[in-house]
From TrEMBL:
Pfam families: HAD. The keyword Signal applies. The keyword Signal applies. It comes from the Bacteria. This is Haloacid dehalogenase-like hydrolase.
Amino acid sequence: MTYFIRVAKSYLLPIILLVFASSAQGADALPSWNEGRAKQSIVSFVERVTAQGSADFVPVPERIAVFDNDGTLWAEQPMYFQLLFALHRVKVLAPQHPEWASQEPFASLLKGDLKGALSGGGTAIMQIVMATHSGMTTEEFEQIVRDWTASAKHPKTGQLYTKMVYQPMLEVLAYLRANGFKTYIVSGGGIDFMRVFSEEVYGIPPEQVIGSSGKTKFEMRDGTPLLMRLAEVNFIDDKAGKPVGIHQHIGRRPIAAFGNSDGDLQMLQWTCRPPGPRFCLFVRHTDGDREWAYDRASSIGRLDKGLDEAGIMNWTVVDMKTDWRKVFAFEP
Protein backbone atom coordinates (compact mmCIF):
# COMPACT_ATOMS: atom_id res chain seq x y z
CA MET A 1 0.00 0.00 0.00
CA THR A 2 2.84 2.38 0.86
CA TYR A 3 4.33 1.74 -2.59
CA PHE A 4 1.08 2.65 -4.35
CA ILE A 5 0.76 5.85 -2.27
CA ARG A 6 4.27 6.87 -3.27
CA VAL A 7 3.50 6.18 -6.94
CA ALA A 8 0.25 8.14 -6.73
CA LYS A 9 2.06 11.08 -5.15
CA SER A 10 4.73 11.01 -7.81
CA TYR A 11 2.06 11.42 -10.49
CA LEU A 12 -0.13 13.85 -8.59
CA LEU A 13 2.55 16.30 -7.47
CA PRO A 14 3.43 17.58 -10.97
CA ILE A 15 -0.27 17.98 -11.72
CA ILE A 16 -0.85 19.94 -8.48
CA LEU A 17 2.12 22.19 -9.17
CA LEU A 18 0.90 22.79 -12.72
CA VAL A 19 -2.54 23.79 -11.43
CA PHE A 20 -1.04 26.23 -8.91
CA ALA A 21 1.29 27.72 -11.51
CA SER A 22 -1.60 28.20 -13.94
CA SER A 23 -3.69 29.82 -11.21
CA ALA A 24 -0.87 32.19 -10.28
CA GLN A 25 -0.39 33.23 -13.89
CA GLY A 26 -4.10 33.70 -14.42
CA ALA A 27 -4.65 35.70 -11.24
CA ASP A 28 -4.39 39.48 -11.28
CA ALA A 29 -1.17 40.26 -9.42
CA LEU A 30 -1.98 43.98 -9.43
CA PRO A 31 -5.68 44.18 -8.44
CA SER A 32 -5.48 47.80 -7.19
CA TRP A 33 -4.37 48.97 -10.66
CA ASN A 34 -6.86 49.91 -13.32
CA GLU A 35 -6.28 48.37 -16.73
CA GLY A 36 -4.18 50.65 -18.87
CA ARG A 37 -0.73 51.46 -20.19
CA ALA A 38 0.94 51.84 -16.79
CA LYS A 39 -0.19 48.47 -15.46
CA GLN A 40 0.51 46.71 -18.75
CA SER A 41 4.01 48.18 -18.95
CA ILE A 42 4.90 46.64 -15.57
CA VAL A 43 3.46 43.23 -16.42
CA SER A 44 5.00 43.19 -19.89
CA PHE A 45 8.46 44.03 -18.55
CA VAL A 46 8.33 41.33 -15.87
CA GLU A 47 7.10 38.73 -18.35
CA ARG A 48 9.88 39.58 -20.82
CA VAL A 49 12.77 39.45 -18.34
CA THR A 50 11.58 36.24 -16.67
CA ALA A 51 10.72 34.20 -19.77
CA GLN A 52 13.29 31.46 -20.35
CA GLY A 53 14.58 31.65 -23.90
CA SER A 54 13.48 35.26 -24.33
CA ALA A 55 16.01 37.68 -25.84
CA ASP A 56 15.31 39.92 -22.82
CA PHE A 57 15.70 37.16 -20.20
CA VAL A 58 17.55 38.35 -17.09
CA PRO A 59 19.06 35.83 -14.63
CA VAL A 60 17.64 35.97 -11.10
CA PRO A 61 20.77 37.47 -9.45
CA GLU A 62 20.55 40.46 -11.81
CA ARG A 63 16.87 41.15 -11.16
CA ILE A 64 17.34 44.20 -8.96
CA ALA A 65 14.57 46.78 -8.48
CA VAL A 66 14.98 50.00 -6.50
CA PHE A 67 12.24 52.15 -5.00
CA ASP A 68 12.23 55.65 -3.60
CA ASN A 69 10.22 55.81 -0.38
CA ASP A 70 8.66 59.25 0.21
CA GLY A 71 5.95 59.83 -2.37
CA THR A 72 6.63 56.51 -4.09
CA LEU A 73 5.90 53.86 -1.48
CA TRP A 74 4.15 56.02 1.10
CA ALA A 75 2.73 59.55 1.21
CA GLU A 76 4.87 62.63 1.76
CA GLN A 77 2.34 65.39 2.42
CA PRO A 78 1.89 67.75 4.21
CA MET A 79 5.62 67.21 4.78
CA TYR A 80 8.07 64.33 4.93
CA PHE A 81 7.10 61.98 7.74
CA GLN A 82 10.62 61.82 9.14
CA LEU A 83 10.60 65.59 9.47
CA LEU A 84 7.33 65.35 11.41
CA PHE A 85 9.08 62.83 13.66
CA ALA A 86 11.97 65.29 14.16
CA LEU A 87 9.58 68.14 15.01
CA HIS A 88 7.94 65.91 17.60
CA ARG A 89 11.34 65.12 19.08
CA VAL A 90 12.15 68.83 19.45
CA LYS A 91 9.22 69.20 21.85
CA VAL A 92 10.21 66.07 23.76
CA LEU A 93 13.84 67.17 24.11
CA ALA A 94 13.19 70.87 24.78
CA PRO A 95 13.35 70.59 28.62
CA GLN A 96 16.92 69.30 28.26
CA HIS A 97 17.90 72.24 26.05
CA PRO A 98 16.99 75.61 27.63
CA GLU A 99 19.24 77.30 25.06
CA TRP A 100 16.71 76.43 22.35
CA ALA A 101 14.39 79.14 23.70
CA SER A 102 16.57 81.74 21.98
CA GLN A 103 18.19 79.63 19.26
CA GLU A 104 16.70 79.27 15.80
CA PRO A 105 15.10 77.28 14.30
CA PHE A 106 14.17 75.77 17.68
CA ALA A 107 12.86 79.02 19.20
CA SER A 108 10.25 79.41 16.45
CA LEU A 109 9.27 75.75 16.69
CA LEU A 110 8.70 75.99 20.43
CA LYS A 111 6.50 79.05 19.85
CA GLY A 112 4.43 77.09 17.35
CA ASP A 113 5.75 79.05 14.35
CA LEU A 114 6.52 76.19 11.96
CA LYS A 115 6.72 78.44 8.91
CA GLY A 116 9.26 80.66 10.59
CA ALA A 117 11.29 77.68 11.79
CA LEU A 118 11.50 76.20 8.31
CA SER A 119 12.17 79.51 6.57
CA GLY A 120 15.85 78.65 6.84
CA GLY A 121 15.32 75.91 4.26
CA GLY A 122 17.65 72.93 4.12
CA THR A 123 20.01 74.40 6.72
CA ALA A 124 17.23 74.68 9.30
CA ILE A 125 15.96 71.21 8.56
CA MET A 126 19.46 69.76 8.89
CA GLN A 127 19.86 71.48 12.29
CA ILE A 128 16.59 70.00 13.49
CA VAL A 129 17.43 66.50 12.26
CA MET A 130 20.96 66.51 13.68
CA ALA A 131 19.73 67.71 17.08
CA THR A 132 16.97 65.11 17.32
CA HIS A 133 18.71 62.11 15.74
CA SER A 134 22.04 62.14 17.59
CA GLY A 135 23.48 61.83 21.08
CA MET A 136 22.12 58.32 21.64
CA THR A 137 22.95 54.74 20.76
CA THR A 138 21.65 53.13 17.59
CA GLU A 139 19.47 50.85 19.72
CA GLU A 140 17.97 53.80 21.60
CA PHE A 141 17.19 55.58 18.35
CA GLU A 142 15.54 52.48 16.92
CA GLN A 143 13.26 52.18 19.94
CA ILE A 144 12.31 55.87 19.79
CA VAL A 145 11.33 55.52 16.13
CA ARG A 146 9.45 52.30 16.87
CA ASP A 147 7.44 53.98 19.65
CA TRP A 148 6.62 56.97 17.44
CA THR A 149 5.46 54.92 14.45
CA ALA A 150 3.30 52.81 16.76
CA SER A 151 1.29 55.82 17.94
CA ALA A 152 1.75 58.92 15.75
CA LYS A 153 -1.08 59.57 13.30
CA HIS A 154 -1.37 61.49 10.06
CA PRO A 155 -3.09 64.89 10.48
CA LYS A 156 -5.41 64.42 7.49
CA THR A 157 -6.42 60.76 7.61
CA GLY A 158 -5.98 59.95 11.30
CA GLN A 159 -4.13 56.80 10.25
CA LEU A 160 -0.78 55.64 11.58
CA TYR A 161 2.00 56.85 9.29
CA THR A 162 2.89 53.23 8.55
CA LYS A 163 -0.63 52.82 7.15
CA MET A 164 -0.11 55.67 4.69
CA VAL A 165 1.50 53.30 2.20
CA TYR A 166 0.28 52.90 -1.35
CA GLN A 167 -1.56 49.62 -1.88
CA PRO A 168 -0.72 49.50 -5.63
CA MET A 169 3.00 49.80 -4.86
CA LEU A 170 2.81 47.07 -2.22
CA GLU A 171 1.40 44.87 -4.97
CA VAL A 172 4.25 45.79 -7.31
CA LEU A 173 6.79 44.87 -4.63
CA ALA A 174 5.12 41.50 -4.06
CA TYR A 175 4.74 40.86 -7.80
CA LEU A 176 8.41 41.53 -8.45
CA ARG A 177 9.58 39.34 -5.57
CA ALA A 178 7.31 36.52 -6.75
CA ASN A 179 9.19 36.72 -10.05
CA GLY A 180 12.68 36.50 -8.61
CA PHE A 181 13.42 40.19 -8.07
CA LYS A 182 15.27 41.56 -5.08
CA THR A 183 13.67 44.85 -3.99
CA TYR A 184 15.52 47.75 -2.36
CA ILE A 185 14.51 51.09 -0.89
CA VAL A 186 16.73 53.96 -2.07
CA SER A 187 15.58 57.12 -0.36
CA GLY A 188 16.71 60.54 0.75
CA GLY A 189 15.20 59.65 4.12
CA GLY A 190 17.30 58.42 7.00
CA ILE A 191 18.55 54.86 6.60
CA ASP A 192 18.18 54.02 10.30
CA PHE A 193 14.72 55.61 10.43
CA MET A 194 13.39 53.51 7.54
CA ARG A 195 15.05 50.28 8.65
CA VAL A 196 12.85 50.23 11.74
CA PHE A 197 9.66 49.57 9.77
CA SER A 198 10.75 48.57 6.24
CA GLU A 199 10.42 44.82 6.74
CA GLU A 200 7.08 44.95 8.52
CA VAL A 201 5.52 47.49 6.15
CA TYR A 202 7.11 46.63 2.79
CA GLY A 203 8.64 43.19 3.22
CA ILE A 204 12.05 44.76 2.60
CA PRO A 205 14.66 43.69 5.18
CA PRO A 206 16.89 46.39 6.75
CA GLU A 207 19.95 45.28 4.80
CA GLN A 208 18.08 46.20 1.58
CA VAL A 209 17.46 49.80 2.66
CA ILE A 210 19.71 52.59 1.33
CA GLY A 211 19.29 56.10 2.70
CA SER A 212 20.92 59.21 4.08
CA SER A 213 22.97 58.69 7.21
CA GLY A 214 24.74 60.43 10.03
CA LYS A 215 28.10 59.34 11.37
CA THR A 216 28.32 56.73 14.11
CA LYS A 217 31.10 55.99 16.57
CA PHE A 218 32.03 52.79 18.36
CA GLU A 219 32.28 53.14 22.16
CA MET A 220 32.72 50.93 25.20
CA ARG A 221 30.36 51.91 27.99
CA ASP A 222 30.74 49.99 31.27
CA GLY A 223 32.20 47.11 29.31
CA THR A 224 29.40 47.11 26.74
CA PRO A 225 30.21 47.82 23.06
CA LEU A 226 27.88 50.44 21.57
CA LEU A 227 27.42 52.51 18.43
CA MET A 228 26.76 56.18 19.22
CA ARG A 229 24.96 58.45 16.78
CA LEU A 230 26.89 61.68 16.10
CA ALA A 231 25.59 65.07 14.98
CA GLU A 232 27.55 64.85 11.73
CA VAL A 233 26.41 64.05 8.20
CA ASN A 234 27.83 60.88 6.70
CA PHE A 235 26.01 60.56 3.35
CA ILE A 236 23.06 62.24 1.61
CA ASP A 237 21.21 59.73 -0.54
CA ASP A 238 19.37 62.12 -2.83
CA LYS A 239 19.60 63.16 -6.48
CA ALA A 240 23.09 62.29 -7.77
CA GLY A 241 23.78 60.57 -4.46
CA LYS A 242 21.27 57.80 -5.22
CA PRO A 243 23.28 56.03 -7.95
CA VAL A 244 26.34 56.37 -5.73
CA GLY A 245 24.49 54.81 -2.80
CA ILE A 246 23.24 51.96 -4.98
CA HIS A 247 26.75 51.25 -6.23
CA GLN A 248 28.18 51.29 -2.71
CA HIS A 249 25.50 49.10 -1.12
CA ILE A 250 24.42 46.75 -3.92
CA GLY A 251 27.30 46.56 -6.39
CA ARG A 252 24.92 45.89 -9.30
CA ARG A 253 23.07 48.32 -11.53
CA PRO A 254 19.31 47.78 -11.14
CA ILE A 255 17.15 46.86 -14.10
CA ALA A 256 14.07 48.63 -12.67
CA ALA A 257 13.66 51.89 -10.77
CA PHE A 258 10.58 53.57 -9.29
CA GLY A 259 10.40 57.18 -8.12
CA ASN A 260 8.12 60.19 -7.94
CA SER A 261 10.24 63.33 -8.00
CA ASP A 262 13.22 65.11 -9.50
CA GLY A 263 15.20 63.80 -6.54
CA ASP A 264 14.90 60.37 -8.16
CA LEU A 265 15.83 61.47 -11.68
CA GLN A 266 19.51 60.47 -11.59
CA MET A 267 18.58 57.06 -10.16
CA LEU A 268 16.22 56.45 -13.08
CA GLN A 269 18.68 57.79 -15.64
CA TRP A 270 21.41 55.48 -14.37
CA THR A 271 19.10 52.46 -14.13
CA CYS A 272 17.61 52.84 -17.61
CA ARG A 273 20.87 53.47 -19.42
CA PRO A 274 21.31 50.86 -22.20
CA PRO A 275 22.08 48.10 -22.89
CA GLY A 276 19.67 45.41 -21.79
CA PRO A 277 16.00 45.45 -20.83
CA ARG A 278 15.29 48.35 -18.45
CA PHE A 279 12.21 49.73 -16.73
CA CYS A 280 11.73 53.16 -15.16
CA LEU A 281 8.54 54.55 -13.61
CA PHE A 282 7.45 57.81 -12.02
CA VAL A 283 4.41 58.02 -9.75
CA ARG A 284 2.61 61.28 -10.57
CA HIS A 285 0.40 62.67 -7.81
CA THR A 286 -2.78 63.71 -9.59
CA ASP A 287 -5.50 62.73 -7.11
CA GLY A 288 -6.48 65.68 -4.92
CA ASP A 289 -9.43 63.78 -3.45
CA ARG A 290 -7.93 60.49 -2.29
CA GLU A 291 -4.40 61.86 -1.81
CA TRP A 292 -2.85 65.15 -3.04
CA ALA A 293 -2.38 66.72 -6.46
CA TYR A 294 1.08 68.19 -7.07
CA ASP A 295 4.03 67.96 -9.43
CA ARG A 296 5.97 70.76 -11.15
CA ALA A 297 5.38 73.59 -8.67
CA SER A 298 5.49 71.65 -5.41
CA SER A 299 8.06 72.38 -2.73
CA ILE A 300 7.78 68.75 -1.64
CA GLY A 301 8.23 65.95 -4.15
CA ARG A 302 8.57 68.26 -7.16
CA LEU A 303 8.28 66.38 -10.44
CA ASP A 304 9.38 68.74 -13.19
CA LYS A 305 12.61 67.78 -14.95
CA GLY A 306 11.77 64.13 -14.34
CA LEU A 307 8.40 64.49 -16.04
CA ASP A 308 10.04 65.97 -19.11
CA GLU A 309 12.70 63.26 -19.15
CA ALA A 310 10.06 60.53 -18.84
CA GLY A 311 8.35 61.83 -21.98
CA ILE A 312 11.61 61.89 -23.93
CA MET A 313 12.78 58.46 -22.77
CA ASN A 314 9.34 56.82 -22.90
CA TRP A 315 9.40 55.86 -19.23
CA THR A 316 6.15 54.86 -17.54
CA VAL A 317 4.31 57.66 -15.73
CA VAL A 318 1.56 56.60 -13.35
CA ASP A 319 -1.44 58.92 -13.21
CA MET A 320 -2.55 58.21 -9.66
CA LYS A 321 -6.10 59.39 -10.27
CA THR A 322 -6.79 57.19 -13.29
CA ASP A 323 -4.31 54.31 -12.92
CA TRP A 324 -4.95 53.38 -9.28
CA ARG A 325 -8.24 51.79 -8.34
CA LYS A 326 -7.25 52.15 -4.69
CA VAL A 327 -4.58 54.40 -3.18
CA PHE A 328 -4.38 53.26 0.44
CA ALA A 329 -5.23 49.84 1.83
CA PHE A 330 -7.60 51.38 4.40
CA GLU A 331 -9.85 52.80 1.69
CA PRO A 332 -13.26 51.10 1.46
